[in-house]
Amino acid sequence: MDNLVPLYTSFTGRISRKTYWMGVIGIIIGAIVLSIILSLVGLGIMPNVAALDPANPAAFAEAMNAATRSAAWGSLIMFVILGVPSLAIAIKRRHDRNNSGNDVYVYFALTLIMLLVQAFGFGYTTTEVNGIAMPTPTVTMMILSAVIGIFAIYLLVVLGFLKGTDGANQYGPDPLGGVATA
User: Fold this and answer.
1) Which helix (H) or strand (E) is 35 found in, with range?
2) Which one of 63, 84, 145, 162 is separated from 168 by 20 to 30 angstroms, measured CA to CA?
3) Is the dihedral of CA 36, 40, 44, 47 positive or negative?
């Protein structure tokens, strides 16, 4: 238990892949609990289905737009709450590969920008589908989402699957206790 607080709050040192994945599991559990709480206070991703009237396209469209905005605010709140722990384990994992982690900071900044744009209702337009106006992302938002998605895959591979530096590096000793070979 003593190691959990620094795992999720410290940005110094190195962690192994196993510790990283254990930390990710903790964050996923936290995200599930937080998403349940947020949905209970009305910031979930699903509209109130009982209130939808298929015979009233304008009301249906407004309910979908409201659900999109609500989900964006819920995602932003989750990102802010889980951002520091996620950033801490990612930076320490990059340190294990003898990297400063600046790419992780760029990824988090791009994600935060996208979530802010969505939460404030930008980046979406309405498109009529079978007589119902539905929120759809703009081309710019789709491109930003694609860039962030590709970046996320890169980080998944680097953080979760590539071996760290053998022996000590500038960020600390090998978390596996190995020594560098000459």
Assistant:
1) helix 17-40
2) 84
3) positive
User: What does the angle CA 62 – CA 138 – CA 154 come to, to the nearest 5 degrees?
Assistant: 120
Let me know: does 23 contact 8? Beta carbons within 8 Å.
Answer: yes
For residues 17 and 95, what is the distance between their CA atoms, to the nearest angstrom? 12
Which pLDDT value is given to residue 3? 82
Query: pLDDT at position 135, please?
Result: 82
Q: What is the largest distance, in Å, between two alpha-carbon atoms of the chain?
A: 75
Please tell me whether residue 169 adopts helix, strand or coil conformation.
Answer: strand
Contact yes or no for 131/61 (Cβ under 8 A): no
3-state secondary structure of 56: coil
Strand partners, 129: 132
The domain spans of the chain are 9-160
61 or 97, greater pLDDT: 97
